[in-house]
Design brief:
Elements: E1 16-17, H1 19-39, E2 47-54, E3 61-64, E4 70-72, H2 74-90, E5 98-106, H3 110-122, E6 133-136, H4 140-155, E7 160-165, H5 175-184, E8 187-194, H6 196-202, H7 207-216, H8 227-233, H9 237-253, E9 257-264, E10 271-278, H10 281-293, E11 299-300, E12 312-314, E13 319-320, E14 324-325, E15 332-333, H11 336-354, E16 361-362, H12 363-370, H13 378-390, E17 395-397, E18 415-417
Parallel strand pairs: 1-3, 2-5, 2-7, 5-6, 7-8, 9-12
Antiparallel strand pairs: 3-4, 8-10, 9-10, 11-12, 11-15, 13-14, 16-18, 17-18
Helix pairs in contact: 1-2, 1-10, 5-9, 8-9, 11-13
């Protein structure tokens, strides 16, 4: 994942990479493996089409800043994740699914692009160059529309594409550009980094900052107030601006579903956000499941039910030997205790959403309308509903009229209904 300080040149030692960036690689790999398996669920499926785009690809190789170990970059993370997913999908199938995956690796720096091409050839991908792997030495924004056209032509209605946009700062990928990607591709997703601390340090009451906000696509971020006014009236002015920034950025990007978390640099370069943006609740659920599976990478500072605070976080100092994050009692960790708390809280909150309407709502509607404000996955929602079924505080009916007795059998189309006789009243 390319950064401005990284420098690559053929024949020279690769640049160092910090552990917090290695954590991003692991999340990317885990998400792609889970995403592909989720979308290839039918035993009758024969083909699967997807385009993966790394908008800031870098040179593809690093050395770990602490261990000096060779670390492959995000282009290879994508390639290896697809291999792993293909194996897992096909290992028990008699008729194999054919994966049609194309890759676009875009890198503006000439030296980095040359090293990336060399590493791809060295590692056995040379024959795919120009066929399924495309390297462009250019800015991402100069290739975005071309790639959108490629995806539409290749995938037709599904138009599945995942854009990894790991910009160094916060202005290289403006929100209107992301909005174009989201509106153009029904199956499009974006994983975006945003250097929030750098933004806050730069924020000021001047024309340069005003032009920058317009460039990013969030011109009214300060709500017609000056920075001085915000500092005087808000107890934690940085937190206030972060809240406004998060809301405006998500809205301007045009995503229906989003999963935000922060990563803190171990070298004091400041916090930055990693936002997953999508148009489908299933994609959001897959990313949330990764939070729970990789709980060594995440903390979120909020409630366990439907009032989640905006950011989830990774702090490298809490990562013991880079594999097991120590839980220091700060915030809500994605562990078994947090899961139990989430199930309990959702068990309290879901009836408030179902009871007002005698017709209730479908499970899919419940999840889609509330998941952006909850750290819970769809499975955790099901466990909470299972509790309510056992206590006879909820009824679940399938489209064919069959009553569900088990939470694991609940489908998106199943209707959640108030019980005919409630044992208590809110």
């Amino acid at each position: 994942m390319a950064k401005v300080p990284y420098q690559w040149a053929l024949g020279e030692r690769p640049p160092p990479i910090q552990q917090h960036s290695v954590a991003k690689h692991e999340i990317l790999r885990a998400y792609l493996v889970a995403y592909i398996q989720t979308l290839i669920s039918s035993p009758r499926q024969e083909e699967f089409r997807l385009t993966l785009i790394d908008g800031f690809a870098g040179g593809g190789i690093y050395r770990h800043a602490s261990t000096a170990q060779e670390i492959l970059g995000s282009p290879f993370v994508m390639l290896e994740a697809v291999k792993e997913a293909e194996f897992l999908v096909n290992r028990e199938r008699q008729k194999k699914v054919c994966l049609h995956i194309d890759y676009f690796f875009i890198e503006n720096d000439k030296g980095a692009a040359e090293v990336l091409k060399s590493e791809l050839c060295l590692r056995g991908y040379g024959e795919q160059l120009g066929q399924t792997i495309f390297i462009f030495q250019s800015k991402f924004q100069d290739r975005a529309k071309e790639i959108v056209s490629f995806v539409k032509k290749k995938s037709h209605r599904a138009a599945r594409a995942i854009f990894l946009l790991d910009q160094y700062g916060y202005a290289e990928v403006p929100a209107p550009l992301i909005n174009m990607l989201m509106q153009s591709l029904a199956g499009g997703e974006v994983i975006l980094t945003f250097a929030v601390d750098s933004f806050l340090n730069f924020a000021g009451d001047n024309q340069l900052n005003k032009r920058l906000l317009e460039q990013i696509g969030i011109p009214d971020l300060f709500r017609s107030r000056t920075i001085d006014e915000i500092k005087k009236s808000e107890k934690d002015w940085r937190l206030f601006i972060q809240g406004c920034l998060y809301k405006d950025l998500v809205n301007a990007c045009g995503a229906r579903f989003y999963t935000p978390f922060f990563i803190r640099s171990s070298k004091g370069h400041g916090d930055y956000w990693l936002l997953h943006l999508s148009q489908r609740p299933r994609a959001r659920d897959v990313m949330t499941r990764i939070h729970w599976e990789k709980n060594n990478h995440f903390i979120h500072y909020g409630g366990s039910g439907l009032e989640m605070f905006q950011m989830l976080g990774y702090v490298p100092e809490r990562d013991s030997e880079f594999t097991q994050q120590l839980q220091l009692g700060l915030g809500f960790c994605f562990d078994e205790l947090a899961k139990k708390a989430s199930v309990a809280k959702l068990s309290e909150q879901i009836p408030h959403l179902i009871y007002p309407d005698p017709d209730g709502m479908s499970f899919g509607e419940l999840f889609a309308s509330t998941c952006n404000t909850s750290p819970a996955s769809a499975q955790i929602y099901r466990e909470a509903i299972g509790n309510l079924l056992q206590m006879k505080e909820l009824e679940v009916v399938g489209q064919d009229g069959t009553e569900r007795r088990s939470a694991n059998r609940i489908h998106d189309s199943d209707q959640l209904l108030p019980p005919k006789q409630r044992s208590f009243v809110f």
